[in-house]
Write a structure and sequence with these properties.
This protein is an alpha/beta fold. The chain is 41% helix and 15% strand. The longest helix is centred in the first third of the chain and has 21 residues. 43% of the residues are buried. The structure holds NADPH dihydro-nicotinamide-adenine-dinucleotide phosphate. NADPH dihydro-nicotinamide-adenine-dinucleotide phosphate binds next to helix 10. Homodimer. Pfam families: THF_DHG_CYH, THF_DHG_CYH_C. Catalyzes the oxidation of 5,10-methylenetetrahydrofolate to 5,10-methenyltetrahydrofolate and then the hydrolysis of 5,10-methenyltetrahydrofolate to 10-formyltetrahydrofolate.
Amino acid sequence: MPSVLIDGKAIGAKIREEIKRDVERLIERGCRPGLAVVLVGEDQASRTYVKNKEKSSTAVGMKSELIELPISVSQKDVLETVDRLNNDPTIHGILVQLPLPPHIDESKVIRAISPKKDVDGFHPENVGKMIIGQTSYVSCTPAGILELLKHTGTEISGKHAVIVGRSNIVGKPMGQLLLQKDATVTYCHSKTENLEAFTRQADILIVAIGQAKYITAEHIKEGATVIDVGMNRDENGKLCGDVDFASVKEKAGALTPVPGGVGPMTVTMLLKNTLQSAQLMCSKYI
Ligand code: NDP
């Protein structure tokens, strides 16, 4: 049975329309949501991501500020930039594009961002709140995946969710969010022995490993919902996921494509978090 294609592009576009309307309402009341993105160095992939975030935020009517710093910038200067943005009332969301050059302490920079403007959800205060189920900014990719599951009517409660990959920005928060939705959660990683034995049990399989087409039909339980986070290049230089789409689509019940699955949801959640921050901050004076 061919699987349902989970169209992140369409779902993301629908949510961005709602965000746009809310932004217009805020602007009418004298508050324009503002997102600042700090980019250090010349990494092409980072530049592409940042440009996409800039384009998406202006498309919904937000103010977008891009701060480009040279690769030689000192840690002190990065921290001062973050501090200025923390104190800028026209900025409601701050994002520092990772990775940073090795001479800069990434965790120190993340901790310098005001948790109230941490729309990436990477600050330890937001991560901690998320884990204990308090309102917080949640890392955009896992938040976007939850939206995909919601929009496709995927049942989570009581289901077995298997997460392959345990990064701080995708795998770990993803498992915690599904746990809060009453899934039974298993984490797998590069040291997991007999990966297939776990993935084959998954009702919901989330793959975020950065290995092109690694997960094949043999890893999948018939009818499972499969979410492919990976963004890789295949042998022909074509964008592809961590899941072998061609074989898995014949066995999974529902599957995200790459591109057009998780990617559009990540940027959508960034805008949603920025809007939420602006709504909270602006409610104090409008
Ligand atoms: P990281 O490199 O930070 O983490 C990769 C994780 O995968 C690690 O936990 C690693 O295990 C695990 N892993 C690697 N190889 C295997 C394997 N063969 N079997 C099982 N586990 C394995 O990656 P990210 O989480 O940052 O990103 C993962 C992928 O998702 C990348 O392709 C990235 O580009 C993409 N991505 C896409 C986004 C989007 O919006 N679409 C957003 C963020 C990421 P260990 O911990 O043991 O090393």
